[in-house]
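[job 0412] stage=fold_complex status=start
inputs:
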Amino acid sequence: MDISILPPELIRIVISAVIIIAFVFLNAMVLGYAERKLAGYIMRRPGPMEVGPQGILQLMIDGVKLIGKQLIVPKESGHALFRIAPLLAFIPVGLAFVVIPFSDKLQARDLDVGLVFMLAIMSVNVVAVLVAGWSSNNKYSLFGAIRSVAQNVAYEIPMLLSLLSVVLMANTLSLKGIVLAQHPVWYVVCQPLAFIIYFVAGLAETNRAPFDLPEAESELTAGFHTEYSGMSFSLFILAEYTNMFFVCSIAVVLFLGGWSGIPLPFYAYSGGIWFLLKVYALLFVMIWVRWTYPRVRFDQLLNFCWKYLIPFSLVNLMLTAILVKLWPVVF
Amino acid sequence: MTPEAAKQDKHTFVLNMGPQHPSTHGVMRVILEMDGEHILEPEPVLGYGHRIQEKMGEARPWPGFMPNTSRMDYLSAMIYNHGYVSLIERMTGIEVPRRAEFIRVITDELNRIQSHLLWLGAFLLDLGAFTPIMYTFDDREQILDILEDVTGSRLTYCYHRVGGVARDIDEKFVERTRAFIARLRSRFKPIYYDLVTSNIIFIKRVKDVVSFTPELARRYGLTGPPLRSTGISYDIRKNEPYSIYPEFDFEVPVGTKGDCLEVYNIRVAEMEQSLRIIEQALDRLPEGPFRNKIPRKVKLPQGDATFSVETARGELTYYLVSDGSDVPYRLKIRVPSFSNLSVLQELCRNMLLSDLVMSLGTLDLVIPEIDR
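[job 0412] stage=fold_complex status=done
writing structure:
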């Protein structure tokens, strides 16, 4: 068939959808491998070594294993919801890629409200977790789901407040605009507190240690995905890893100058390379934190949010607002 | 809220923790009456792995029970050996050569350190930190290797014998043990202190959470580090000395407040004290026979006897009644974990689920010892 008869926009959509899905899986594989390997080095053991040189094919084999596994649906569970939940977790992750500016040219759509769009898409994950925990008909799953919702609702506030102070400075919600606005200095220099608050809240948003209470193994066996097996389980994991990628890419776009960096030999790809380098550097920190700290308790987690993160981010926001207003007057 | 009120309140529910749960460290079940994340009433259920060990002891001549001793508390196997052979020696009046006593103390203390190391890793695992267990297992592996060389097994030893020990230790054992002491000492500060003890999240999690009080401890017969954290200095090695412990210079670490952080600190300090004991024992290790010849068949004289030793978890007492044959008429074993667990119900009322997991970890339970 001659594909030129198809509308070019449709072809573009199909190609980008394929690339995005491929990237989601690739990212999860890279992160999964990095996590196990880094965990290994932190624990002074080699990590996966058997499949392929240095075990790089381990995650591929794991994927095949997960696909081959039977999907077990508990008898007493809500069948439809139980099956929908993993999809609900996985489908939104494709959408958020639309607005990520990988480089000055490599961005699907530069929406005016790019930041809001991305945060909105990311918070759909909470619904998936709640549905999964509820429909599993398992007390441990329900515990995990309730914890996850309480945690995500609480931590979204400092996260948004800290991002808002950057938006005030950049005067735009478009992700591309924000990158361009931090031309001389990155916002991490002007807004260090906001960056720290955002990163901590981001760890909690993605349910990563030390805030991994929804899946606290020692307390809740596996939290909201206790009853999930095979591919439906791995869709949750894929969503989790992709959400980590999103949290870090927002951090890079808003605080670390997005794609900007010293031009590299492959000039055309320099922006994309810088962007990914920065994102994976932040992801490395996330993994590093996970394998170092114990888990906080649930009341401590919420106290930390309401007593420290929210007041500090409010003060930070207020100071930023005053400075932004005064700056043109004074200078 | 009292349990009675909770029963009328529809918001409570029952949560089954175990028998297969990652944090009960074995086949133990705790039925939890919950109100949200708060535990109104924890009720431990035992007996999933009961093996009638005491009855087995009463059903065969006393040497046949030797291997069973190490299969109750598999982490203090050597100390369980020690208690049993000392009990028989006390009843029959069999002499032990001095070298054997030294070897017993050295292996006991090595066993105690490996138990505490495993506890440290597993406790941190309960708190959600994955890395420390790999470090502690790395150290623990050294002890297992050393003991494997001399005893032939890695976990369930049957090494102590009535009248001595099964095999003599050699120069290689002494060298490796000395190397291990230096290695573990060098790791306390950079690894355990910097990674765990000084960690703010860890301190916030364990400090002031539960309170062991002297009164509570006396009522439940609490022994071991949880008892010592209340300020009561009770260690069988000091208070009712056995073997050659009085000859060594060591301290019994005690706490004041009785919270989990103190229990943790006491266990870490005990490891250091054990290293001191081993070091002194290696320095003064006498030459001579490692086992006295004993008759092939030894009858136990009529009467009864008890013998207590300090395991890694607390006080272990063997009580034996004999009718004059070589088969014990009654063998009663008082194990520390059983009494330490019984405190759970009172200790963990109105506590968060995460804290219950942490408290279970603090008690350092070995379930096969409770279900013996």
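[job 0412] summary: The radius of gyration of chain A is 21 Å.
[job 0412] exit 0
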